[in-house]
Amino acid sequence: MTDIILHRVLPISKRLISERVQSGETVVDATAGNGNDTLFLAELVGENGRVIAFDIQQKALDATKQHLGELAGRTRLILDSHANVREYVDGEIGGAMFNLGYLPYSEDESIITTPSSTIAALDALLGLLKKSGIITITVYDGHDGGSEERDALLAYIRTLHQGDVHAIRYELLNQRRNPPFLIAMEKMRDFTEVRKVADE
Ligand SMILES: C[S@@+](CC[C@H](N)C(=O)[O-])C[C@H]1O[C@@H](n2cnc3c(N)ncnc32)[C@H](O)[C@@H]1O
Predict the structure, then answer these.
(1) pLDDT for 95 beyond 90
(2) Among 42, 46, 47, 122, which one is least packed by beta carbons within 10 Å?
């Protein structure tokens, strides 16, 4: 019996993104890291699509470029914070992925995603996302600063109007050693600025 439905977080995030991203679209990898999600997205959008991938570390973008191989041509690698995504993306995007925390296999685990830039990027990406598009966020909260980012992110998401965005949390409860959990968000209607529940 190999037919698993309750996959781990990473395959589920890819499956959700695949459900909605169309060939030829522009998508965003908000945290390129070693480029695993960037490569997945580059394959998904096809030769006429575009992946815009952010990281604040040059070594992450170098690793991503190497990982992409011949698909690097479909990808724009940006050495800047994802909080500035609107400076680089003007049209609609088909989807976006985040993978929070520090660069895996790096000597410096102190360079981490932070609440303010993660939330600023998410807020901007929700505005840029096509209707019915999906944003996935893989959240690691076991490192220093991880629980603060988790709490701030969940608090921000809870303020979002349900008519604009549906947000879910998915996690494998019996996975040991600081497992990640997944937040997935689906855009329910066209908008460019998110509404907060308190704004009603
Ligand atoms: C968990 S790693 C990403 C892993 C990646 N998805 C992969 O497939 O290898 C998180 C990455 O986010 C990057 N990062 C931290 N703050 C950032 C920011 N404000 N904007 C963009 N990237 C950031 C880190 O440098 C790190 O490489």
Answers:
(1) yes
(2) 47
